[in-house]
Amino acid sequence: GLISLTPRVRRTRAVVIVRDGIILAERYAPGITAATPLNGWSMTKSVMGALIGTLVRDGKLALTDKCLLPQWRGPGDPRAEITLEDLLRMRSGLRFPEVYSDTQSDVTRMLYDAQDSAGFAASRPLEHPPGTHWKYSSGTTNILSLIARRAIGDAEYLAWPRKILFNPLGMTSAVFEPDAAGTFVGSSYLFATARDW
Known about the structure:
Strand order of the largest sheet: 3-5-4
Radius of gyration: 19 Å
Number of helices: 7
Structural class: alpha+beta
Helix content: 25-40%
Number of strands: 5
Mean pLDDT: 96
Order of helices and strands: EEEHHHHHHHEE
């Protein structure tokens, strides 16, 4: 076989190695420092999952909750059967192509064109009965963010992640970006330093 003399392109911006709470090593790409906020992209989904967990712990939501959004409560709408757990496990059954190479796929339209990310994702029809089919979906995480907003109320929502999770963890750099409708883009847009991540 041919040996490539061209070095592989790497897009790693930061690496931090921690053991027992102590940073053993860290390295940053040119232009990036320990103080640079980095977009977490899909790591943001784990944070949203933890935040939803606090609402379940506090009794504001339950994993078995159904009829989660007003637009799913119409007569005969099968999306009313989607549970909170279905959304957390990405088994909602909603049609939501996660194809980033297609500028017209649901995920690219939701992230780069829709003013209301959760509303866009929630408008998708069912492709499978809820709870029966796993499919990776950034849309379901944004729906979770809207459900959290409705459970908390607008007055507390924007401060909620910092109060309930970031401050207790010491994530002082964390910034959660909302969409134009004011709902956090729980699938993708949490910024924090590599140390905070």
